Amino acid sequence: MALKTTNVNELKYYKSQLEKTRKLYEDTIDSLIDTVKMSAIYWQGFDGNDFRLKVYGFIGKDLNCISKEINAEIEYLNKLIIVLENAQEQIKNRLNG
Fold this sequence. Notes:
Blueprint: H1 8-42, H2 45-96
Helix pairs in contact: 1-2
């Protein structure tokens, strides 16, 4: 059975794309938080506070969870790239040595 060759540059490209996506995602979350903060000027009282607390809770739990998952995926790709680069270097050394 033949082994499939993994292209490290392709993994680096995917990691780069994921980092860009994470940045856009986090910028969107920051923008959403700013919008909710601005709503305090226009919508005051119990209903306004309740709305903001619910949105902040949603942002804090659900949206930040997605951000953590993206970060975990990036870290996984980093480790995988390091392992594959080390394996390629060892193979090269054994073939040349």
